[in-house]
Amino acid sequence: MKIFLTLFAVILFPVFCHADCTAKAEFANSFMKEYKTYCDKEGDKETALQWVQRNTKVTDNFRKAYNKMVLDALKEDPEIGLGFDPVWDGQDYPQKDLVILRCDDNSDYVMFKGVDLDTYRVVLKVIKTGKGWLVDGAGVVNIHKDKQAPRD
């Protein structure tokens, strides 16, 4: 019986982990699709700060980090602010979908690449909470420097 349970655990554990990683990546991708929709209509009805504040897919930690980053930059340079979008980690973003480049079962990070911008990369930090999956970091927002997407 012990052998059976051990084999069962060894065989099924990776399947459950992979399913968890897939769910995490799909959630992250849905967040980025919503953010892209917002960015494509930027300025229509709300600022990015307002969009992030009302978004139910991000943690309070993400909201605080985003607000601090943007507001600090606006204090320093009221005209330009950051000069780039911190969620996309750049001035440009893919016009087509993102695809999963790397999803690590042992961490909270998912890396995507652009379908139409092959060299474009963005990292999201997604955590599982009592409320389900939530984005806790994206681009350079609440993503430690050594976990951010590489830049050429």
CATH topology: Nuclear Transport Factor 2, Chain: A
Strand order of the largest sheet: 1-2-3-4
Overall pLDDT confidence: 86
Major sheet: size, sense and barrel closure?
4 strands, antiparallel
The first-level CATH class name: Alpha Beta
- Uncertain regions: pLDDT < 50 for 5+ in a row? 4-17
Count of runs of 4 or more consecutive helical residues? 3
> How many distinct folded domains?
1
Q: What is the succession of H and E elements?
A: HHHEEEE
Number of separate strands: 4
Strand content: 15-25%
**Structural class by helix and strand composition:** alpha+beta
- Radius of gyration over alpha carbons? 18 Å
> What is the share of helical residues?
40-55%
End-to-end distance, in Å? 54 Å
Shape: globular
Return the CATH architecture: Roll
Structural description of this entry:
This protein has 152 residues and is of the alpha+beta class. The protein has a single domain (2-147), classed as Nuclear Transport Factor 2, Chain: A (Roll), CATH 3.10.450. The chain contains three helices and four strands. It has helices at 2-40, 48-54, 60-76, and strands at residues 98-103, 109-114, 121-129, 132-138. It has a four-stranded antiparallel sheet. A hairpin with a 6-residue loop joins strand 2 and strand 3 (121-129). It is globular. Mean pLDDT is 86; it is low at 4-17.
